[in-house]
Amino acid sequence: MERAQRSDAERQVEVKAGQVLLPGILGLPGPRGVVVFAHRNGNGRLNPRNAMVARMLQEGGLATFRVDLLLPDEAQVLHNIFDIHLLADRLLAATEWVMQQQETRGLRIGYMSTSNGTAAALQAAARLPEAVGAVVSRGGRPDLARTFLPQVKAPTLLLVGENDPAATEQNQKAYQQLACLKEMIIVPGASHLFEEPGTFDQVAVHARAWFLRYLVQESA
Questions:
Q1: Which of helix, strand or coil describes residue 96?
Q2: What is the pLDDT at residue 148?
């Protein structure tokens, strides 16, 4: 179900997932692939930094879909935040919606994720290997995907901050369990939220390069 509000390159949409409607923002710049942003919190699609990454991907010819996997009230419940199966189910519902749209039908799909959304993205990628062509995680929790990690086929990039030892350890453990094409990049000078000058720009550059390399190549 699509809302009337639109912009030149993006439009707001809603995706049915079980009994709820998940809000999202779909950007269509003449896509060569489509990247679904897996936001755990209730308003991640509106975050200016996520919007900046989406614009960079769109400039590379990639469609983007920033979707919130939890509604605002659901995101206040700790159990929901750590319910990786719920998050993955909703991400798959959003993915299937993208696959059904005329503008994005037939395109390879990538996942851009953070925090627990990374575990959901990796589980979803393992469950839908024929459609998901790449995964990029920024300061995420891939370790929470547990038994799904060895099943992931999509090329996976893990980005962590140099000054975030907890996330570095968690990502290193998950990295060892991944059997797919993979890379882990430690961003110099970055903390967990990549708030230091220039560090978030590096995230965007690495993410765009990864998606262009694997989504466009696979869909060519």
A1: helix
A2: 98
Q: Where are the domains of the chain?
A: 2-219
The 8-class DSSP code of residue 124 comes to H
The class (CATH top level) of 2-219 is: alpha beta
Whether the Cβ atoms of residue 2 and residue 13 lie closer than 8 Å to each other: yes
Integer angstrom CA distances of residue 23 from 45, 71, 181: 8, 8, 32
What gap in Å lies between CA 200 and CA 179, rounded to an integer?
Answer: 27
Q: Which residues contact 108 (CB under 8 A, 6 or more apart)?
A: 33, 34, 131, 132, 133, 134, 214, 215, 216, 218, 219
User: What pTM, to 2 d.p., does this model score?
Assistant: 0.89
Residue whose pair of structure tokens reads 């923002």 in the numeric block = 25
Distance of CA 134 to the CA centre of its chain: 10
What is the C-alpha end-to-end distance of the chain, expressed in Å?
A: 30
Alpha helical stretches, state H, 10-159: 48-59, 78-81, 84-100, 117-127
Whether residue 4 is predicted with pLDDT greater than 50 in this model: the reply is no
